[in-house]
Write a structure and sequence with these properties.
The chain is α+β, with helices and mostly antiparallel strands. It folds into 3 domains: about 35 residues, no CATH class; about 90 residues; about 55 residues, OB fold (Dihydrolipoamide Acetyltransferase, E2P), CATH 2.40.50. The strands form 2 sheets. Strands 5-4-3-6-7 form a 5-stranded antiparallel beta sheet. A two-stranded antiparallel ribbon has the order 1-2. A hairpin with a 4-residue loop joins strand 1 and strand 2.
Amino acid sequence: MVLFEDEQVDRTIGVRYRNEVVIAALGAEIEAIIGDTGSSGVRLPVQRESVRVWPLRVLADLHHQLRHGSPRWRRALLYAGLGLPLAVGLPVDRLLGFFAWLLLPLSVVLLRMWIGMAELNTRWVIWRRGITVRARFESDHANEGISHIVHFRTLDGQEVTAHPALRGRRDEIRYDPEDPSHVLAPTRVAWLGIAVAAFMITGIWGVAFGIPAALWVIKMLLLLF
């Protein structure tokens, strides 16, 4: 099949392939591209796009993420770029430093999952500034994941409807005055059971994956002192 032919310079460019069906399909595609015209009958101009070589493209994307990415992205890139040289370059056990650098992010993720599952962050905030008021609980039949809805009034008279994770034994609720949708019901025993179960699922692995980092820090401190 002839791809290009120029009579002035007596040059012809062609292609050969053992499968005639493939050659015919390629020729049809080329004819469709060459004959591609707009509604006015004028051939559309050829659009050219330059693509960077993949190492340069990766470096450009990393630079863009560092400058304009989310804070989480910037922290992850800084950890990946600076953490490994420090972990294996300082005069501490290099193998331990590598495993500490490798497993520490997984440890942080699992521990944060445990904090979220056990509502530790919410309980800390409400323990510091929470306000206890009378509340009215009712079953939530429309949502299978949440079994109760609570209605209460804040001290400034605002009517609030929230979805507590647990149903309290008493008809009262403790809410965050800065965000009344964050509520906790006084169910200490039930919450402790949930916190322990969540720790067995995620927290214990988060602690285990953080042990190499703790050992590396201890060895580093021993070298300093």
